[in-house]
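Researcher: Batch entry, complex prediction.
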Amino acid sequence: MKAFSISGYRTFQKCQWQWYFMAKAKSGNVKNDPYRREITMLSHLRTLASWRGQLVDDVLSNEMAVAFNQKQRFTLDDAIEVALRLFEKRLHFSQNHEYRDVDNKKSHLPEEFSPLLEHEYDLPLSEEQLDGAWLDIEIALTNFFQNEPFVEMLRSAEHLDAQRTLNYKLEGFSIIGTPDLIVYSKGQAPLIVDWKVHAEPVKRYNQQLLVYALGLHLTLPQNRQRANWKKFLLTDYRLVEYQLLKNDLRYYPVTEDYLNQTRAFIIEGAYKLQLAGAEDTYNFDDLQDLEQTDDPENCLTCCFRKICNHEQKPTERQPNLFDWEYS
Ligand code: SF4
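Model: Structure tokens for the complex:
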């Protein structure tokens, strides 16, 4: 059964085929099905913009949060050093198409396994674009670590939970969400942080944060290690979207009205996914009942173009792959 996630539902709204490939056909356990194995491999591809966002995410979630939890030093210099190592390893791995080697598993090679869509699809990728991506990574990390009040708040927190998956039920639907960071500070309601590396952050992510807040409030009672934070009302929770390239922190309130809207949004979305077969076992023929996107720009940044027989309509605008945002 496929749980509702906000990112999955966004994909479904963009293109039902893309959702099907990502949510239903992809599987790490399909040795004898070459078609699904190919889908699974393609699902790892990211555009350069998304790739650099993932790298920043990995440095903060896997290195910074772990060090701070252990009350160890982790500075901007440490972050840049790790980022440069990942940048070079991932670029080399991707350029050489090593992700296509069946023995190279993402779970075994977390530092290397991050293939670029541009390499798989032979799209031009200039030195200038790569330099730009590295510069963005440096800017994002520098902004973060130079925000001393924020970093100090994380350092002094009782616990940081990075990329913790929250599984919960709402009106019988299974819901899943993975916030970038949950901060547990003494005597304060949990703070949920979502960081983004977007060049032009026009969109707001309060809805995504509210989905996480609902999940955290419902799952905290089962989490014995975080018992001290059970007493807080959901409306006491604090939500922040951190646009790292702009050094812009956007705090969002949790109100009863927003929560009701979020519950309604989740239930409607989960119901639509259920109708599209989210809970059914994989069956290739189900794809024919789903719709392909009408927007050719969605296809240009889609990792499944190779196996999707969608006839692409011409587009007037030339989308800049480098500006495609990571969400
Ligand atoms: S190539 Fe286009 S139609 Fe096919 S899955 Fe991707 S976005 Fe959808």
